Amino acid sequence: MKKLSIIIPACNEENRIQNTLDQYIIFFAKNYKEFELILIPNGCEDKTEEIVREYSENNPNLKYKIVKEKIGKGGALIEGFKVATGNIISFVDADSATSPQALYDLVKKLEDNNGVIGSRWMKGANILRRQSWKRRMASRGFNLLVRVLFGLPFKDTQCGAKVFRAHIVKDIVNELETTDFSFDVELLYKLTKRGHEKIKEVPIAWEDQMGSTLNLKKMVPLMFLSVLRLRLLNSPLKFLVKDKFVRDIE
What we know:
Helices cover 42% and strands 17% of the residues. By secondary structure, the protein is an alpha/beta fold.
């Protein structure tokens, strides 16, 4: 069985991170021979960093890298990719919307594929608690725009649970430029452009978690701007994308 790296970005997650760590450490210690859980606390203004440090003292499978500035989910995952030592690299969100069992199911489906990504929109997905209809609408609209602009075949690029063979992630990690809403899109797009196809999308067991602070009125235009910026970054018009604009939408 190959070594598994599980990366979890975390920003101000003091109320949830302990439970997430407990779930993942206990489950994979029982079910997987060799694994590492990599926490990337970033921009935290609460006790997340303290909880992670203390937890690591008694759990050798837990690694962490603390980043003082807020670098977004994508920035945190890039940092995690760089320090991961597993043959298989996976990532999930800190809120436990993806259970350890659900992630393990994705790992088992890797087989001869280069990657496996979870989907909430495929037939067979087990949605234990749904998002609000407004968030579902925003998600579906974003995915439609992604399919039009990038030609990606996936129904759900934004699901937080993904598994890849490490060598294909390491192949493109230094080319990743997006750290906001479009990170997953850029990751999938650059992997396929590099020839790392055979990325399988499968239905997942997923549970929306309470406590989200996302402001939909603010989020929807930012998502739209983010994906347009990504399209420009991957076109001959890349010079039009300024650093200030990058900072403004993150």
